[in-house]
Amino acid sequence: MGFQARIKKHKPFLKAIHMKKRLAWVNAHKDWTKDDWRRMVFSDETKVNVWGSYGVKYYWKRVDDKFRFHHLNLTVKGGGGSVMMWDWIAYDGPGANGHPKLLQLLP
């Protein structure tokens, strides 16, 4: 039939007001000099799961192949824990000497 399954890409949901605010920020900063950008710091945080992503996982096998151990998605009770990290970047490079700060170790 010509159909193929595809995984949707993850994109942040932005309302019209969010898009307007982003565009306004860009327009307000488009003429900044290098000295202006030297005063700016961007930061972010992320959670890393010890036992991998919560995303969809696939495996491929032929119809006549038997089931194999590597076809399993192994799990542990409680999810296996995760680590929260935070870092920043500025004009001169990453913060904390390139080492993210450990915020929280979650069970």
What does this entry look like structurally?
By secondary structure, the chain is of the alpha+beta class. The protein has a domain at 41-106. The protein is 18% helix and 24% strand. Strands 1, 2, 3 and 4 form a 4-stranded antiparallel beta sheet that branches. Strand 2 (82-90) and strand 3 form a beta hairpin. The longest helix has 14 residues, at 16-29. The chain is elongated. The chain starts with 15 loop residues before the first helix and ends with a strand. The model has no long low-confidence stretch (mean pLDDT 80).
What is the gyration radius calculated from CA atoms?
22 Å
Query: Could you spell the SSE succession in H and E letters?
Result: HHEEEE
Query: What is the mean pLDDT?
Result: 80
Q: How many DSSP helices?
A: 2
Categorize the overall geometry. Answer: elongated
In the predicted model, the low-confidence regions spanning at least 5 consecutive residues are none
- Give the beta-strand count: 4
Give the oligomeric state of the chains in this entry, treating copies of one chain as homo and distinct chains as hetero.
single chain
The percent range for helix content is 10-25%
Broad structural category:
alpha+beta
Ends distance: 47 Å
- Sheet with the most strands, sense and barrel status: 4 strands, antiparallel
> Approximately how much beta-strand content do the residues carry?
15-25%
